[in-house]
């Protein structure tokens, strides 16, 4: 069985916006700090972070005298109010429209006073809380596909030629969606047909991936980038399915009694989806309006080869 390697890794979570794997995530959606360890938080791209409080749960259950709060961002600069940074008078932080560039360490220092009742002596206490905030994307999807073609022989250059022509056709078919074919492979096998003779067939497998060069351009007009890429990969899948359906139609309706030695095996097309983990993150020719048969493409390719 062909093992399909994932192209890259991503920081993503199955939880919703501001997901936190910690008891410090309260029922109200507030996140409290911890004296002992940094609190890790995952925020979906272009969503708001949960409300981060500059104190721990224990401190929040007690009265706090003259509290002051100082937030430091990933660039080690003091955070101030702006379009994306919201600081409340209670010392809470909300990061709006979270971007990949905003990922990193957020540190808050809480200063407050304790007062002795007898002497009214004041003591200033300082506590530091670290929050590690990361942007994540929803998982993207890719499609694994398999298809079979008959061939005259398992030996010869035309098998490799068909393989390369097919990949080129499929890439051109989905290039405007910024999807492409990756990890293509094929093997030739001798297949015994019931009540018939042996037939040589090419077993072709490949993956359709939504991250062709220039794929980030699909995100320019979309807030949820993964929605755009997943929509494109679905369209790419549908186009390829339609292409192979057209091959069967061409085979049965455009050829009389003479069937080419290399042709699509009807009902051999298979497709299944897979979650594609994606790292942190050139429009080509438009899709053809009419599908050419593989046989026609091969004839053109043969002519070019013979002219060499």
From TrEMBL:
- What keywords are annotated for this sequence in UniProt? Signal
The residue range of the signal peptide is 1-19
* Domain Ig-like span(s) in chain numbering: 52-124
Alphabetical list of Pfam families matching this protein: Sp38
In Gene Ontology terms, what is a biological process of this protein?
acrosome assembly
- Would you say which domain of life the source belongs to? Eukaryota
What do the Gene Ontology cellular component annotations say? acrosomal vesicle; extracellular region; zona pellucida receptor complex
Task: List the InterPro entries.
Answer: Ig-like_dom, Ig-like_fold, Sp38-bd, ZPBP1/2_N
Q: What is this protein called?
A: Zona pellucida-binding protein 2 isoform X5
Organism for this UniProt entry: Cricetulus griseus
Its gene name is Zpbp2
């Amino acid at each position: 069985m062909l093992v399909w390697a994932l192209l890259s890794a991503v920081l993503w979570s199955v939880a919703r916006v501001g997901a936190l794997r910690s008891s410090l995530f309260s029922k109200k959606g507030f996140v409290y700090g911890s004296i002992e360890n940094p609190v890790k938080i995952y925020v979906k791209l272009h969503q708001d972070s949960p409300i981060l409080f500059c104190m721990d749960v224990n401190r929040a259950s007690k009265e706090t005298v003259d509290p002051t709060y100082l937030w430091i961002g990933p660039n080690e600069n003091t955070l101030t109010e702006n379009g994306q940074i919201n600081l409340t008078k209670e010392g809470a932080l909300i990061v709006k429209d979270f971007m990949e560039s905003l990922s990193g360490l957020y540190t808050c220092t809480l200063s407050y006073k304790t007062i002795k009742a007898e002497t009214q002596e004041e003591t200033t206490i300082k506590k530091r809380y670290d929050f590690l905030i990361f942007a994540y994307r929803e998982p993207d999807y890719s499609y694994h596909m398999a298809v079979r073609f008959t061939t005259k022989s398992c030996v010869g250059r035309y098998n490799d030629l068909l393989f390369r022509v097919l990949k080129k056709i499929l890439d051109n078919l989905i290039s405007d969606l910024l999807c492409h074919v990756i990890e293509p492979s094929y093997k030739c096998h001798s297949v015994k047909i019931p009540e018939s003779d042996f037939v040589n067939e090419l077993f072709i497998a490949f993956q359709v991936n939504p991250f062709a060069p220039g794929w980030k351009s699909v995100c320019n007009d979309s807030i949820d980038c993964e929605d755009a890429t997943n929509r494109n990969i679905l369209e790419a899948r549908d186009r390829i399915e339609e292409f192979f359906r057209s091959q069967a139609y061409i085979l049965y309706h455009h050829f009389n009694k003479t069937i080419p030695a290399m042709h699509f095996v009807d009902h051999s097309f298979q497709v299944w989806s897979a979650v594609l983990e994606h790292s942190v993150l050139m429009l080509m020719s438009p899709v053809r309006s009419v599908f050419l048969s593989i046989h026609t493409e091969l004839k053109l390719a043969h002519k070019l080869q013979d002219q060499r």
